[in-house]
């Protein structure tokens, strides 16, 4: 009973905070209104599923509805009739645009399709005994996500795993970033042109978050301190040239209001990767895999970690995730990938995948929360 009271208290706190900062999210939408779930949206209204939740409508018993946008209209009076007009199209988002059918393909670690995830990049590392860097002399190490045409957001663990050491500037000769990547074992070809779909880009610079403890890949071993490895586990990689392909794009960063809202959780999220697909480190996929996950709010994650006695093993700057389907998780090789969440219109990077050995057939509870690092990310990009 005490646990139930605590949970209800947490929900109440979130609802009060939401009300004090401008009401529910549904009412902030043009024509947005919350109605009983059993009643359904009124005629000429359509449900906005991304807002049919606690923050959207204060309760799961209600759904968020907005007025359907008419494609044409005719206005009449007793004397004149206006000609039909078409309203201006809704401007497309400048970031976070992906495949409109992506959720039809992602069920629990299944292959995606080319161009589904234009923000996702493969980060490759120079193979042993090789000196000249290109696709044939490198192998996939981890991944990242494009937050600017020349900047990749990834984990610090991934950056060092691919580059070796931040203190040795020759890391730029050991790393490649492949945008519009799908199959890491071959060059992906655009069927409409017969030309390469992917863009292979050299690295100009990598920058680790200043509070990340490690400076070199050699310091990781023997991988027995996952808390340290995953605390403040954020890095940025600057590309030597901007992305330019039709299958490459930039994901959205959280807004400041989202950063300030510790009560917001996210249900429609996806993780991707080319890492190991079993805990025996077998079955490395060649094609990009994806799976659905959920992210709790920061307040709920703190409560959960405390109740489960996990506060001592929770990395600094982390958030709680859970799979939508059983046994869906990231594994070795997926580090640095984004937890991408859909808001009904565009995709936003909410978290990053940590170092994870995916052992004991259990999913990893903690991922790196992007929200606390937004100021550092934005300042680093603008100053470099």
UniProtKB/TrEMBL annotation:
Keywords: Disulfide bond, Signal. Residues 74-85 have a biased composition (Low complexity). GO terms for biological process: proteolysis. GO terms for molecular function: serine-type endopeptidase activity. Residues 74-97 are annotated as: Disordered. Pfam families: Trypsin (PF00089). Residues 1-18 form the signal peptide. SMART domains: Tryp_SPc. Residues 106-382 form the Peptidase S1 domain. InterPro entries: Peptidase_S1_PA, Peptidase_S1_PA_chymotrypsin, Peptidase_S1A, Ser/Thr_Proteases_Immune/Dev, Trypsin_dom. It comes from the Eukaryota. PROSITE patterns: TRYPSIN_DOM (PS50240). Belongs to the peptidase S1 family. CLIP subfamily. This is Serine protease 30-like.
